[in-house]
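Subject: sequence -> structure tokens, single chain

Hey, anyone have a minute? Need the predicted structure for the following. Not urgent.
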Amino acid sequence: MNEKIELLMEETGCERGEAELALEMCGYDVEEAARQIPRLLRDICALKAKFVLPASNQHGLAVVALNLKSRKVLRARAVLSYDPAVCAIGLEEDWFAFEKHLYGCRL
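Reply:
Had a minute. Here:
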């Protein structure tokens, strides 16, 4: 049980009590709890960006997760590529799906 709590805390940047609450509400399913965290944690803000540098034909994605309560950056990730498929994901996707796509592009 503690492993699930620690994993959720590490992945989402939430506090222990918030992770426990999210896990309880989601039947101790870590993946589901991670998806529900944005609704549960209103102090977390995610900024997503897609950009193109036409002069060099580069395409990129960036995501920054912020904790508005503590005023800290929880996570900042970006990818820049010559492959236009990087920008295939829409900005309307939730930030977990957006970040998952970004990680996939980094491989």
